[in-house]
Amino acid sequence: MSVSRRNMIAALWKAIDRLQEEGLTLPEIGNEPVQLERSLCFQLYHALQRLRLTDVPFYPCYEPHEFESIKGGKAEPPQPDLSFHFYESPIELNWPIEAKVLKDAKDTALYLEEISKNLLTCRYAPFSGEAAMLGFLLKDIAALVFADIERKLRCKLEPGSSNPPRDHMISKHVRQVPEGKPYGTRLLCHHLVVRVSLESAEAHLPRTDAA
Q: Contacts for 23-27 with beta carbons within 8 Å, 24 or more apart?
């Protein structure tokens, strides 16, 4: 999957660059940072669509269903914010992308919760064993975010494969595979941090983590 991985990461950065060049749309978020996250993800999805990725074997999906992870007959399947799906692969094979708005470099609680509750439990990416976390950073620099993630995950982050180099690191994990499931135990998690200038939004975003 290495070539496809590089292409997916490159497509993400290209869409992000386009959004920043065109200007991000700021919704009326009030006290709900999740609405800003949803808006940014939706804008990113449309930027990915406008790239018209015709020379690669995958396409972007918005809030895809992880049907493999449904629990109970009437339960709703989990949904990451975005994903890439391969044309010739089963519907269950998603490469999920989960985004979080970070008020500053230490505001990583919800970001890390996605990793621990959804990625390390195979709730997301059960078959791909690989995913991306996207941090929309409103203040500070990416290096401080990566340092905070390293400290709290208690693992070493390694430089990602973005070319040219970007704010992209990776972490490697051993997942908790549910009993009887054929998933791989290894998880490769990409961490992409994007500096977003939304000064008017910052005052409305409550902190989700202690300093």
A: 24/196, 24/198, 26/198, 26/200, 26/201
